[in-house]
């Protein structure tokens, strides 16, 4: 009996060790690691081109902005190579930039179609436009991400570059999915906020489309759909929390949008499976600085591409960007 118990105890210890050193890191890697979507990967896949809604367009010139610049620069803290498009305003002396930030498993090809909205509404007379490839995306360097935590560093790094090269000081952040979470983190994470203050940089508004609104609850829901028990998720989440400097509990809109009460336009769908509406609605309930606009039966980050919603979407974004001009 004692021999059996000893063997059982050793077996349990080995299973626990295997779980801790193999299963948990594997689950964390599902959160932090994903394939880098290059331009070539997207443009060689007709299904992805259709999903991106770009047709034969490949750069800002195809949307009526031939004077764009493609810029190489670096991340704010870790020296990774980034790349983006800068479209100067149609008027000289404009010091404000609309930065359009893509999400996870994406790149700037997916967000460049919003240049059509900018052109149609004449918003280039009010804003310069910058569309980056954040880390692990497009033409930027391969790297791990953490559901928006590092993307936020890249957004602020983009602001730094735009200030140094083009004397830009004022910004509106227009983010999609994880890029929306990143945009909200960028104006709340203490080190990034201090950097902006020290360098005279200011974000005035947020536009968040199909946003990831609570990283923990959205990940927990995805884990349940994969059959991952809560106790395993909680252990893995503790490891992830270490990777984001114990900040994961603040990666939710109920904190981010109330801590820094910027005017925030949110565009979302009730049928978005990737960033569920009930989680978002609970996160923004009662926030007076948040202006939610609900669309019916749209897939994730596909509202603008729906013909029946394009005019309403465009009108809301145009009105928000023109209200109380900077």
TrEMBL record:
Which part of the chain is the AB hydrolase-1 domain? 97-222
Provide an example Pfam family for this protein.
Abhydrolase_1
**Alphabetized SUPFAM superfamilies for the sequence:** alpha/beta-Hydrolases
Family matches, as InterPro entries: AB_hydrolase_1 (IPR000073), AB_hydrolase_fold (IPR029058), DNA-binding_regulatory (IPR052920)
Q: What is this protein called?
A: AB hydrolase-1 domain-containing protein
Source organism (scientific name): Roseivirga spongicola
């Amino acid at each position: 009996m004692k021999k059996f118990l000893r063997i059982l105890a050793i077996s349990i210890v080995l299973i626990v060790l295997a779980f801790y050193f193999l299963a948990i890191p594997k689950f964390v890697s599902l959160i932090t690691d994903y394939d880098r979507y290059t331009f070539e990967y997207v443009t060689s896949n007709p299904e992805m081109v259709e999903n991106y809604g770009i047709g034969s367009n490949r750069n800002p010139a195809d949307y009526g902005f031939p004077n764009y610049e493609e810029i190489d620069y670096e991340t704010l803290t870790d020296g990774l190579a980034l790349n983006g498009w800068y479209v100067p305003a149609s008027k000289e002396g404009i010091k404000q930039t609309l930065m359009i930030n893509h999400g996870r498993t994406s790149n700037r090809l997916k967000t460049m179609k919003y240049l059509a909205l900018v052109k149609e509404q004449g918003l280039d007379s009010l804003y310069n436009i910058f569309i980056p490839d954040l880390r692990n995306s497009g033409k930027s360097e391969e790297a791990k991400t953490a559901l928006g935590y590092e993307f936020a560093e890249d957004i602020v790094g983009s602001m730094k570059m735009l200030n140094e090269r083009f004397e830009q000081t004022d910004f509106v952040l227009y983010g999609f999915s994880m890029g929306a979470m990143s945009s909200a983190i960028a104006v709340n994470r203490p080190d990034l906020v201090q950097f902006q203050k020290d360098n005279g940089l200011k974000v005035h508004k947020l536009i968040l489309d199909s946003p990831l609104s609570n990283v923990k609850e959205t990940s927990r829901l995805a884990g349940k759909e994969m059959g991952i028990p809560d106790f395993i998720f909680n252990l893995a989440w503790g490891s992830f929390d270490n990777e984001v400097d114990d900040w994961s509990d603040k990666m939710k809109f109920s904190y981010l949008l109330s801590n820094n009460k910027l005017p925030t336009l949110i565009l979302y769908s009730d049928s978005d499976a990737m960033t569920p509406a009930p989680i978002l609605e609970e996160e923004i309930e009662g926030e007076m600085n948040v202006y939610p606009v609900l669309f019916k039966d749209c897939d994730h980050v596909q509202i603008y591409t729906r013909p029946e919603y394009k005019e309403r979407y465009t009108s809301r974004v145009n009105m928000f960007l023109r209200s109380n001009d900077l």
